[in-house]
Amino acid sequence: MKNVTILKPEECCGCTACYASCPTKAITMQPDEEEGFLYPRVNEEKCIDCGKCLRVCKDVRPYQEEQNIYACWSKDDSLRARSSSGGIFSLLAEKVLTNGGAVCAVGYSEDCKECLHKIILTPDDLDDLRRAKFVQSKKYDVFQCIKDLIGGGRIVLFCGTPCEVGGLRQFLGKEYDNLITCDIICGCVSSPMVYRTYIEYLNDKYKANAVSVNFKDKRKGWRGKAIAVKFDDGIEYYNSILDDDYCVSFHSRYNIRPSCFNCKYRNLKRGADFTLGDFWAIEKYNEEYDDNKGTSFVLVNTSKGESILNSLDLVIHPMDIDFEEYCMKYNWCMHHNPYAMPEEDRKTFYHDVVTMPFDQMAAKDLEAIKQARKNKKIEQKQVRYE
User: Fold this and answer.
1) Domain range for residue 249?
2) Does one domain contain both 276 and 346?
3) CA-CA distances (angstroms) from residue 31 to 35, 38, 105, 191, 339?
4) DSSP 261
5) What distance in Å separates the CA atoms of residue 121 and residue 159, rounded to the nearest whole number?
């Protein structure tokens, strides 16, 4: 047998490269019953054992060019306020869109119960794609759509997790001058089922329907991390990510895809033109670069990326720092995997998610983790200001 059914669940990141590559459309992406993560399912009657799905799965190709690090932010404070960090993704996207290109990144379904990769053609649709989403997206047929767009000569910007960018490049099989890729400093991906259950719980609690979700609301500053959910009756749920039950479930490491504990893309060498994230601890390198409005960590991995970054209208500061040392101290998820929680505790968590109200599940399974995280943040804040 030469298809992806031979892979263990912890070997599959859900990137959909196998699904997009199958010449007979024998593969579909289906959620597993216990945790709700999407995995490839093969129709053996359609499968011709060509092995293409396995080849694209294993063909991980990070770039080997010289890398440069920058601290960046948009000159437009309103844009920074609407962005997770410094607004660099938005600047890249606006440049591509105003030049007739397309942008593919993660947005929300109309009912906010699902995250999915969307392709947009106008700046008017960009706001939905801004900001981090703490959920693994559905990709549907976007890889094939991107191939069609770049094959037709259109510039395309694709942004996603390292495994999603890797999956796209592996599906395409060759480099394209008119494809620009951004991966994020990824803190793992969480279950679409758990997220949907959480939104449905909030809808029921507030007797309304969610119309927008922001996992990195910055009204209290870049470090005042908060989630804000707006409903169709004008009510808003707002809470620190340290207290919000869904965010705690994500940071607990229960609500993390199994492959994230042994990620083959988590590396200092990256597979995208740009790697974007928060420049945590920037004040330790230069206090003037930190105004608590959001500073982007921009790692440029290709000469194409370098040329594009220098064409943007932004504040940009080259950072002559030890890359590996910085990541070890302040952004460890760039190249270090998290450790897994006890398997029995993980099984209990997913059982309770579907059998108990979300707040009751959290009180039972997450309260000790919540308190430990809050205590750790207090200690870190004390160290920062000593």
Assistant:
1) 67-386
2) yes
3) 8, 4, 21, 10, 24
4) G
5) 15
